[in-house]
Amino acid sequence: YCTWKRTLTRRAREAQMKRFCKAQAIQRRLEEIEVTFRELEQQGIKLEKLLRDEGGSPADQKTQWMNQLLYLVQKKNSLMSEESDLMIAVQELKLEEQQWQLDQKLRCYMNREESLKTPEERAAEQEILVQLLDVVNKRNVLIHIQEEKRLSEL
């Protein structure tokens, strides 16, 4: 029993550390996307000014500027999609952590002998179970959203 408990504790710490590392990587990528958004915005502003002040610019130059502007819009849309995916991943990590915490609480209650539980403990156990089911349903909704998004992109 003692070895089993240590193994579970070690695995829980590893899973928590993995979630933490993933959250850090997501945060870094979100910051990179924000910087890229600003750069694209500045490039877009310059191209729009060039197009408005076109004056005597050759037609092929205008076409080139328009193509560059369209490329910037495509890049921005791609980054927005990635940002959306990352925000869903952040929510999923939060729910995963919440599920783990509720699971730990529930295990404590379930490990107690049923005949020794007080009515308050039984009620708390039921409340935790309801919360756990709610978190699982929220995670299911996120997975469903990701699947719909993936299918719509195809």
From TrEMBL:
Keyword check for Nucleotide-binding:
no
Matches recorded under InterPro entries: bMERB_dom, F-actin_Monoox_Mical
Q: Name one GO molecular function term.
A: monooxygenase activity
**Compartment(s) where it occurs, according to its Swiss-Prot or TrEMBL record:** Membrane
Know the name of this protein? MICA1 monooxygenase
Which one Pfam family would you cite for this protein? bMERB_dom
Q: Which UniProt keywords apply?
A: Coiled coil, Membrane, Monooxygenase, Oxidoreductase
- PANTHER family, per the entry: [F-ACTIN]-MONOOXYGENASE MICAL1, CALPONIN HOMOLOGY DOMAIN-CONTAINING PROTEIN DDB_G0272472-RELATED
Q: Does the keyword Transferase apply?
A: no
The BMERB domain is annotated at: 13-154
The coding gene here is Mical1
Instruction: Show the coiled coil region(s).
Output: 23-50
